[in-house]
Design a protein that fits this description.
CATH superfamily of the largest domain: Immunoglobulins
CATH architecture of the largest domain: Sandwich
Structural class: mainly beta
Distance between the termini: 170 Å
CATH class of the largest domain: Mainly Beta
CATH topology of the largest domain: Immunoglobulin-like
Length: 351
């Protein structure tokens, strides 16, 4: 009788233990399930270190795996970042303007579960955007066929900026600049299309924090290639010392001159750079005095030529000889004997 009571009591005492063991076995048989999302700590800024917390899970996970994702600024279109599989991640320049998430996989003997953190804020750049502290410059001879070179000038900003370039062709009188197609290097070879224009270059500095641009000053007028003067005319107002005017072309008709007919004289004016000059005032005097009538000052046309009618007087000799013509070209407003003016003596034979 007493022996049976002892057996019953022993069995009753063992029941709770069996229930606890069965409950534990039931929990271990389930894969992990997330109860509190993973989180990210640290500053969402280029170069900063972020750390992932795996969150809370049921199922007593035995291991956690991490995968960092780069998303767009709205936290969508996420993609895994190659090699970013640890519980920490150093923000890269490629992440600037994006948001980051971390995906955590929790594993136990029965399987695994996945949970994704909320996104970080939009990743900000580190440092300061570039700022120009000394303007860029252009070096080289401003004549067709020669090469101009850009110096980028001085810039602040961290990290150190990279540079890109754009050459521009401007109106000869200044301003009105437009990009030259394909001219994006540090050097530029002056072409025929640049003659009588000025050139400037735009420098763009860029780093992870932003970008900024600065322009060079405009160059002098681009002169024609040597031996090709007379093709492109500029206004005499664009000629100043040390450049000067040159009377480089003379034509008479008829030649030789007669004592009866009007002599048509044409004079071409250029400057020491090789440009034809429009608007220069040309004046002529026949020598000896009294052989021809005086003629008014005549401006050069758009091709640099001035046409002047010279009328003989009754004093021009019938015999063969030469009419000497003094020619002066000047810039309006300049002193007759100073400024950029030019003078020349030419001869027209008398028939």
């Amino acid at each position: 009788m007493h022996f049976r009571r002892l057996i019953v009591l022993a069995c009753a005492a063992a029941v709770p233990t069996l229930i606890v063991a069965a409950t534990s076995l039931g929990q271990a048989s389930a894969a992990p399930s997330n109860t509190s999302l993973p989180s990210i700590s640290g500053s969402a800024r280029d170069g900063s270190l972020l750390r992932a917390s795996h969150g809370s899970w049921t199922g007593s996970p035995t291991s956690y795996a991490y995968e960092w994702n780069r998303c767009d600024a709205q936290a969508g279109n996420c993609a895994a970042i190659a090699g970013a599989t640890s519980d920490h991640y150093t923000v890269a320049t490629a992440d600037v303007g994006h948001r980051l998430k971390v995906q955590v996989t929790a594993t136990n003997a029965s399987g695994s579960g996945v949970a994704v953190s909320r996104p970080t804020g939009v990743v900000q750049p580190t440092g300061a955007a570039p700022k120009n502290t000394a303007p860029p410059t252009i070096s080289g001879t401003t004549q067709q066929g020669n090469t101009l070179t850009i110096s980028a000038g001085s810039w602040s900003g961290t990290p150190a900026p990279s540079f890109s370039y754009q050459w521009e062709r401007c109106v000869g009188t200044g301003g009105g600049c437009a990009a030259i197609s394909g001219a994006t290097g540090t050097t530029y070879v002056l072409a025929s299309a640049d003659v009588a224009h000025t050139i400037l270059a735009q420098v763009t500095a860029k780093n992870a924090a932003g970008s900024s641009t600065a322009n060079t000053a405009e160059t002098d007028l681009i002169a024609p290639a040597k031996g090709q003067g007379g093709g492109t005319a500029i206004s005499v107002t664009q000629v100043s010392l040390p450049n000067q005017l040159i009377i480089d072309g003379v034509k008479f008709s008829p030649t030789p001159a007669t004592t009866h007919g009007v002599i048509t004289a044409r004079f071409h004016v250029s400057d020491t750079r090789g440009f034809s000059i429009s608007g220069a005032l040309v004046y002529v005097v026949g020598l000896p005095y009294g052989w021809v009538y005086g003629s008014p000052e005549t401006p050069t046309d758009g091709s640099g030529w001035a046409t002047i009618q010279i009328r003989p007087t009754a004093h021009m000799p019938l015999r063969r000889g030469d009419l000497v013509v003094f020619v002066r070209a000047r810039k309006p407003g300049d002193n007759l004997l100073a400024g950029v003016s030019a003078r020349r003596l030419v001869q027209e034979p008398i028939g």
